[in-house]
Amino acid sequence: MDRGRKAMPVQNKQCHERYVKKCQAMHRERLRDMKCSIDNKMPKASSHLKSNAKKKALMEERFANIERENRMLLEKMSYIIAKKGGIDNKNESVQYGRSLNKDRRKRELQKITKQNQLILSRIQESQPTYDHLAWAEDARANQQFMANICEFKPKTMTMSKMGLTDDGAMADEF
Hints:
The chain has 174 residues and is mainly α. It has helices at residues 3-7, 13-33, 47-50, 53-82, 102-125, 132-149, and strands at 157-160, 163-166.
C-alpha cells in the first residue's frame, strides 16, 4: 500500500507521515460527506390524480341510493308493525293434493308383512342341517389324537358356553 510513497526519498520522515495521515483523513471526510447524484425520491403526484373526483361522486351516489332504500324499508316495516289486525296468510279453504295410490300402497305393505311372517315361521320351524353337537365331539376326538401323537404336551382347548377356552397347558418352547 505504501510501496510507492516509501520509495521516494523525503527530508523529514515524521513530517511526511503527519502530512500523509492528514491527507488520508481529509479524503475519508470527503467520502463520508459526499452526496449522491441520483435522485431516488418518488415523483410528485399531481393533485388531480390524488383525489379521484369521479369515483368519489359515484360512491356518494351509491351511498345515497342505499340510504334511500333503507329509509323506504324502515317506513314499510313501521307501517306493518303499527297496523293492527290484518289478514292471516293461511288459507283453510285450499285442499292440498293427496296421493291417489295411498290405499294400494297400504295393501301392498300388509301383503309383504304377511309374507315376511310366513317366511320367519318356516325358518324357525325348520331343523338345522349341521349338527353342532357332532362337531363338538369331533373336535374333542381330534384333540385326543393330537395329544397321543405329539412329543410335547399340547395346549388343550375345552368347550364352554362362551366357545373354546384355553386350559393353560402350554408346549415347551426352546
